[in-house]
Amino acid sequence: MLSEKMQAALNKQINAELHSAYLYLAMAAYFEHRNLPGFAHWMRLQANEELGHALKFFDFIVERRGRVMLEPVGAVPAEWASSLAVFENALAHEQKVTGLIHGLVNLAVEERDHASDSFLQWFVDEQVEEEASADAVVEQLKLAGDSGVALLILDRELGARQAE
Ligand code: FEO
Fold first, then answer.
1. How far is the CA of 44 from the centre of ligand 1 (A)?
2. 46 lines ligand 1 (CB under 6 A)
């Protein structure tokens, strides 16, 4: 059985993951608008992954005989200054999510909730990957600079991303 405190924190994380999905979908829409379908594809897959993360928390709460409570999802931006600004935002967002996951692990340890602690370790590892993949694109976009050709090549590369 989940403690009230742990249940509330896990529910909050469902909301954070859904907000992430919403943010990446907004980024996909921005790239579609800018005629960069590869970037849009990458962001759409990212949004799908976030939905998957939300469902992992959902299922875990249900499995522990807790109660899932869905809250409104916060608003997301529609405009960014550049492709680089979008990915810098994505990276900063993932760093924030990493902090949230680590906070949940700390709470699980405090509550001596070993099952939650074990469940959360998957997310600890996942965040390393999430930050690395956003950071890799940030660095590539910095290298591309103002080159339209480099941007198109990168668009093609990101368009080849496969769903996990
Ligand atoms: Fe659900 Fe991108 O972390």
1. 13
2. no
Q: Which residues contact 28 (CB under 8 A, 6 or more apart)?
A: 40, 41, 43, 44, 47
* Centroid of ligand 1 to alpha carbon of 9 (angstroms): 16
What confidence tens digit (pLDDT) does each residue in 5-41 have? 999 999 999 999 999 999 999 999 999 999 999 999 9
Which domains occur in the chain, in start order?
A: 4-159 (1.20.1260.10)
Predicted model pTM? 0.96
Check if 131 has its Cβ closer than 6 Å to any atom of ligand 1: no
What is the end-to-end Cα distance of the chain in Å, rounded? 31
- The response to whether residue 20 sits with its C-beta less than 6 Å from ligand 1 reads yes
